[in-house]
Mitochondrial fission 1 protein
Amino acid sequence: MPQTQKGSSGPPLQTFLGIRTNGGWYSPLKPAELQVLRAQYEKEGDFVGVQTKFNYAWGLIKSNQRSDQQLGVQLLSDIFKTTPERRRECLYYLALGNYKLGNYAEARRYNDLLLEKEPGNLQAASLRQLIDDKVSKEGLMGVAIIGGVAVAAGIVGSMIVRGSRKR
């Protein structure tokens, strides 16, 4: 797992396998940093260890590339399904990855599982708020779209009725 190191100034830095990042789930790794994780994953091949797979998935989830995020979620899902003792570690990053991919129901499901186990987890609580905000925003957009379609259908319907009356 990433470890936070407090510096003398600025935001805390995280160190993960010797890779120092500026923290935050929103900060992707530099390409060279992700390559270190990818190289280790590929080096282990068919005998890839759970920790190596987790490390690579973590880096992929932090990426801004959708395909990387999808692979990260897939790798973490594999760990979650096959290694029960590592499930808790996977929950936050599965929630985060699904959030970044727009899979809000899945993100909420994993995040809620984590909050059940760790009600005081501030990262998970913050992520829950982000998920709820996105769902609310998209829900309102959906209502607006449906409303717009209904108005358009009403206009078209009234035009048809008017047209048939003129005949």
